[in-house]
Write a structure and sequence with these properties.
Layout (H helix, E strand, L loop, with lengths): L16 H14 L3 H10 L6 H19 L9 E11 L2 E10 L4 E7 L4 H12 L7 E4 L4 H8 L4 E5 L5 H7 L6 E5 L1
Parallel strand pairs: 1-4
Antiparallel strand pairs: 1-2, 2-3, 4-6, 5-6
Length: 183
């Protein structure tokens, strides 16, 4: 978790990097309150105010996220894309999701509308993952072939098959059938 150059991101802080890292990790991993983390550190002889822990969490969470990123596998070249209607904070929205052949989630997007603009926004984000898929299996949403054609995935042909198990879990087992778009 060091930034570019020789200086550490922890440089200039009163507490050692190990204390800061443990406090932030406990907060993120175990869903503790700032006061709980303060208490756990006090039991170990380290006196830190809960506001300081809050500041550490705000400052170092992006560093932890970036450090964990290399642990993920690179996305596969065969993608399964679907969307479903879910309630978020009392409002119904569309959840777009792309997973690869290994079951790893590539990206998700919440959208108020299920239209061409939302599909374009989703696929633009997904393609930033760095891998151009060999094939994209969809649930035959009408906007997908057009967006995929625009974004350089060439031809789409129908392909009848049941949705993946993970897809079935999200959509509640909607009707089988999909479209295959190969590049």
């Amino acid at each position: 978790m060091a930034s570019s150059g020789s200086s550490s991101v922890f440089a200039g802080f009163r507490f050692p990097r190990e204390v800061i890292a443990v406090a932030v990790r406990w907060y993120l991993r175990y869903c503790l309150s700032y006061r709980d983390v303060e208490e756990l550190l006090a039991e170990r002889g380290i006196t830190v105010d809960h506001v300081t822990i809050y500041r550490w969490v705000q400052r170092f969470t992006p560093e932890f996220i970036e450090a964990a990123r290399p642990c993920r596998h690179a996305p596969g070249d065969r993608w399964f894309v679907d969307e479903t209607y879910v309630k978020v904070s009392g409002r119904w929205t569309y959840l777009y999701r792309a997973i690869d052949q290994h079951g790893q989630v590539i990206d998700v997007l919440l959208s108020i509308r299920r239209d061409l603009a939302a599909a374009r926004r989703f696929f633009t984000r997904v393609l930033r993952a760095g891998v151009i898929p060999v094939e994209v299996t969809t649930d035959r949403a009408p906007a997908y072939p057009r967006v995929l054609d625009e974004l350089t995935l060439q031809r789409c042909t129908p392909w009848n098959d049941t949705p993946t198990t993970q897809s079935r879990q999200i959509t509640g087992g909607s009707k089988p059938g999909s479209g295959r778009c190969a590049g």
